[in-house]
Amino acid sequence: MTAVPLAAVAALALALAVPPLVGFDPYYLYVLGTGWLWATLACAWGLLAFAGQVSFGHAAYFGAGAYASALLSQSAGWHPWLALGAAGLVGAAVAVPMGLGARRLGGAPLALATFAYAEVCRLVALNWTALTGGGAGLVGIPSLPLGRERVGHYYVALGVLVAALVIVAGLRRTPVGLAWAAIRERESRAELLGLTPAPYKLLAFACSGALTALGGALFAHAVRYIEPDLVFGRGLSLLPLVMATFGGAHSLLGPPAGALMLYLLSEVVLQPTLPRLHQLPYAMALVLVVLVLPRGLAGIARRVEGP
Amino acid sequence: MSLTTLGEAVVAGLANGAFYAFLALGFVAIFSLTRALNLAHGELVLLGGYVGYAAGRAWGLPTALLVPLSAAALVPVGLVWRVLIARVREPVELNSMVLTFGLSLLLQNAMLGAWAADYRLIATGPGAVVPGLSTARAAGALVALVTILGLEIVLTRTRWGTVLRATSRDAEAAALLGVNVDRVGLATFAVAAAIAGAGGVLFATVHYLHPGGGVELTLLAITLAIVGQLPAAAGRRRQPLLGLLAAGLAVGLVEALTLAAAGPRWRELVVALSLLAVLFAAPGPAERGAAR
């Protein structure tokens, strides 16, 4: 991914800044804003996949970010923007155990560990009633001071997505990114060449966790209500994985593109027509990717461009 | 905790543990044959429970008939799983997780559509064999023990068992020796799904069915599969299923003691934590399964 796609992304982002100005229907603004959020989550998940680590438990970081930002702004009285930033750090911290775990485990066992870790986080949030309010959740979380709320959230979500893309694109081009790719392609060979994988894996987990937690914090301030099953639910582990894998997990633009396609298909097309089946595209996309399209949408794009 | 409570907890824990091993059988069978991690296992068990529930409501059949009925109903599902999982590319563990993660979502939505998000239970009469152990739980434990010991004998003492074990050790070598690997695969998946279906009905006589309840069952099956592999990893491959049974009993016991000491809120947490602990304490067998 060189400067050309980045310029294209910038142009696209500018174009996408227009809808609220021309008085888009509030429902569609909401749908698009949520779409940016999912794209951010898929992008964060893809960052970890780029480093060769497959997570089945990103709900842990999303939920941690949501709860951190909600509690800091509500109970501790922090300014929402400050709480949002702190939530990113909390997400990085919550990802550290799995990042350290990646020293010992890899592949499927690590994926299983992340799966169990997200469950542990959900159950801790559910049972630590004194802090989190338990199953009743937290109500009346302060919203971000944005004036017109819906338009504001649209822009914030878009901004976070663009920031995530810029960060990920930047990281991929640094020596760190090269190390990540080397670890992904053949860890033993990378080690043979003098690379120590452990700190790079830890960094990948922390970055991915931080971006995911930012998404969670954004969600908490936009919806203003969270409870464990909502923000630690399995869907939040599942969907970024589905979207990123469908888009092409190792590419830069694949995960967000996959996220937008699947989310919009589910929300705009299926939700009004076949509400009971609106999660079907996610399931079908996974089955399709594993059986037919191992590189996802990015694989198609590459085939069209030629090798 | 009084001595009586402790005794009741031990009995209930062992009974539950044997049943847990039974619930995990289908997962373990698929994993040892194909190295695929079936994340939709919990949903298959729930589906079996729902089929039993629906048949019980529609025709008023007794539970003893619902068990084989539901087992039979899940066989076609098992065959579909076989066809899909057979097409998964390397690394099989990871790709099968992605695939079955999708399938679990599909099943969960199907069940949500068919039976809504309400909690359902297959009603059996009240009554207890001994204090702390209801008839339904005892029946589950009994079916579990008979099935596991029966399968253990089939696996170790019959030609079929030898063929199956050979195929799961090295499918290519088995095929060279004239084993019809495809048929072994179909049969294993059919049996695995049938056991999941039967387990679902028995599960639903004790626990409430809920479309979202599959994760916990899947986590349990994975935990038991990994713990149960430990004896095999230590080189004692003679008893393929007794390790699983021992793992089930251990988890059941830990869970029952947690329940008696700390209350029901921490039960699920203990299962998830023990999976994490097992993964990190004994990465050997799990990593051996993972082709890197």
**DSSP, total strands of chain A:** 2
Structural class of chain A: mainly alpha
Strand content of chain A: under 5%
CATH class of chain B: Mainly Alpha
Write the layout of secondary structure elements.
The complex is a heterodimer of chains A (307) and B (292).
Chain A: H1 3-16, H2 26-50, H3 59-74, H4 80-101, H5 107-127, H6 129-132, E1 138-139, H7 149-173, H8 175-185, H9 187-192, H10 197-223, E2 225-226, H11 228-231, H12 234-247, H13 254-273, H14 280-291, H15 296-305
Antiparallel strand pairs in A: 1-2
Helix pairs in contact in A: 1-7, 2-7, 2-10, 2-12, 2-13, 3-4, 3-5, 3-10, 4-10, 7-8, 7-10, 8-10, 12-13, 12-14, 12-15, 13-14
Chain B: H1 3-34, H2 41-59, H3 63-86, H4 92-115, E1 128-130, E2 133-134, H5 135-157, H6 159-169, H7 171-176, H8 181-206, H9 214-233, H10 242-262, H11 267-281, H12 283-289
Helix pairs in contact in B: 1-5, 1-8, 1-9, 1-10, 2-3, 2-4, 2-8, 2-9, 3-8, 5-6, 5-8, 9-10, 9-11, 10-11
Features:
heterodimer; A: 307 residues; mainly alpha; 2 strands; B: 292 residues; ABC transporter involved in vitamin B12 uptake, BtuC; two-stranded antiparallel ribbon; globular
Describe this structure as you would to a colleague.
The complex is a heterodimer of chains A (307) and B (292). Chain A is mostly helical and 307 residues long. Chain A has one domain. Helices cover 75% and strands 1% of the residues of chain A. Chain A has a two-stranded antiparallel ribbon with strand order 1-2. The longest helix of chain A is centred in the C-terminal third of the chain and has 27 residues. The model of chain A has no long low-confidence stretch (mean pLDDT 85). In chain B, helix 2 runs antiparallel to helix 3, helix 2 crosses helix 8 and helix 2 crosses helix 9. Chain B contains twelve helices and two strands, in the order H-H-H-H-E-E-H-H-H-H-H-H-H-H. Chain B has 292 residues and is an all-alpha fold. Chain B has one domain: ABC transporter involved in vitamin B12 uptake, BtuC (Orthogonal Bundle). The C terminus of chain B is likely disordered. The interface between A and B is large, with 41 and 42 residues.
